[in-house]
Amino acid sequence: MTPQVISVLGSTGSIGTSTLAVLDRHPEAFSVHALAAHSRADDLFEQCLKYQPDVAVLICEDAAAKLRAALKAADCATVVKCGEQAVVEVAEAESVTTVVAAIVGAAGLRSTLAAVAAGKRLLLANKESLVMSGDLLMSQAKASGSLVMPVDSEHNAIFQCLPQTETGIDLAGVEKILLTASGGPFRNWTKEALSVVTPQQALKHPNWSMGPKITVDSSTLMNKGLELIEACHLFSVSADDVQVLVHPQSVVHSMVAYTDGSVIAQLGRPDMRTPIAHALSWPQRIESGVQALDFLTLSNLTFEAPDLDCFPCLRLAFEAQRAGGTAPAVLNAANEVCVEAFLDGRVAFLQLPETIEYTLSHAKITPAADLPTIIEADNTAREIAREKLGRLAS
Ligand code: NAD
Ligand code: MG
What we know:
Bound molecules: nicotinamide-adenine-dinucleotide, magnesium ion
Largest sheet: 7 strands, parallel
């Protein structure tokens, strides 16, 4: 494998640290150009000492100053930069071959697009950027020759189950994409029980250990909704070509059904190091540190339909994807505002879909032709969602 020079955006998070754990096993194959994060100076300091990147970026100015002083005292040559533009710069830097997009939320949009426009190999975990700008991102990738490798476990699984070509995947003979979902911590709960769930309960995912935003998204099934939209863009299919299956064991990470009746599935432990290692090394394979599945200790693998009545976020995502244009960006923005409010204890669990539906029906949906249009749709949707949340709270 040709050595890769990597920028890890969101290096202190769940995906960021799992990525670095895979890199640790292959020091000869990868070097780190940059590490970027929001504000955890102490964590980024430790990472800089270990990986000696050329550049470290923090968004928070105070945290960047603290990191700069600490690295100087430790005689570490890493240059510390601050702000979103610096994240964009390390995503498009000439020496970089590979960008790991693992910032959470819309905050990752500009750097993800910059990596794509610069023709990098993109390891895409930041699904929100694809949800917001799917057509733009995929067309820019085509124009620049950027290889977009899905890190999201389901999409990485689907990629593995599709016919492969030298430059990616092919859709020959594909009948349907079967996108699996764990169902989250509230599977089979009644609406009455859901009306009083706490952030602490939502933050306890049954199978995966992840950052707080995606964990809440998993509990509302919005995560699966965002993933539906993600799948449509990554694999050039429509919402009707994707079926969501609740599979509580999280062993089958997704499947592809073919016209001849065959179904191909990818299985593994619920550990993100597997899709990260695959996305780093494809078309080759490298060791990830994840143990193989032990089929003799696996119990039943079960599948059921999602409950769209108790979890309307998934329905809203299907509707937004079918509406097209800026609707997915509006869905995403309203959801980000809602998740933050829910984690702060400002809104009840069942008011999340209510607020997102309200926002979708009150925002003007236009074609998502360019970045300014998408960002404007995102800003307006946040205003509408905040106004609605304010009224719900009073
Ligand atoms: P996390 O909260 O653990 O980490 C987020 C990272 O982004 C942190 O390093 C944080 O410092 C950084 N960050 C936040 N705001 C930033 C900003 N404005 N600028 C720069 N950096 C910023 O989140 P996570 O669970 O690692 O998820 C990251 C992304 O990967 C999300 O889009 C999520 O949907 C996706 N994803 C995560 C998992 C998982 O298992 N954790 C699986 C699939 C997809
Ligand atoms: Mg996923």
